[in-house]
Amino acid sequence: MTDQSGESMDGITFLTEMRDEGRNYPPIGSFVEFKIDEIKRGHLTGTGVPRADHYNPLGVVHGGFAGTLLDLALGHVSITVLDDMTYAVSTTDLTVKYMRSILHDTGKMRWTAEVMHSGKTVVMAEASLYDSKGRLCASAQSTCLITKRRD
């Protein structure tokens, strides 16, 4: 993938264009209102919003909301370490831990994601999801495989 000048694009540029111009935005992100705020190599912060249509039969937000939001955060923080967007990351495992229930009136939630290890073929990262009071609601870890992109 190249930028407007035809130069190879890195992961930071790719994500900055997503945040600032809406390019490359993952369609599933709209389901959880995935937004990126801060972008640094190996570090991202952002938000997501739970809604009543995320509820499970017991009247709380389904765990898939937090899992999806954290998986997006982890995949995208893994992109920050790519020097060349002719490569991609693909999640090989995802572990999510839930600490507290989320309701639709929890409001906008904040997430943070950090790369713990970045090698030639693997990126390991961790992410946390917080409610508006700063309480930890869920955390996750993932491993992503770095592969050549298929267009």
Descriptive report:
The protein has three helices and six strands. The protein is α+β, with helices and mostly antiparallel strands and 151 residues long. The protein has a single domain (11-148), classed as Roll (Thiol Ester Dehydrase, Chain A), CATH 3.10.129. Strands 1-2-4-5-6-3 form a six-stranded antiparallel sheet. The longest helix has 17 residues, at 63-79. The protein is globular and about 50 Å long.
Note the overall shape.
globular
Kindly estimate the percentage of residues that lie in beta strands according to DSSP.
35-45%
Order of helices and strands: HHEEHEEEE
Query: What is the gyration radius calculated from CA atoms?
Result: 15 Å
Overall pLDDT confidence: 94
CATH superfamily: Hotdog Thioesterase
User: Fraction of residues in helices?
Assistant: 10-25%
What's the number of helices?
Answer: 3
User: What's the CATH architecture?
Assistant: Roll
Instruction: Give the low-confidence spans.
Output: none
What is the β-strand count? 6
Protein traits:
151 residues; alpha+beta; Thiol Ester Dehydrase, Chain A; six-stranded antiparallel sheet; 6 strands; 21% helix; globular
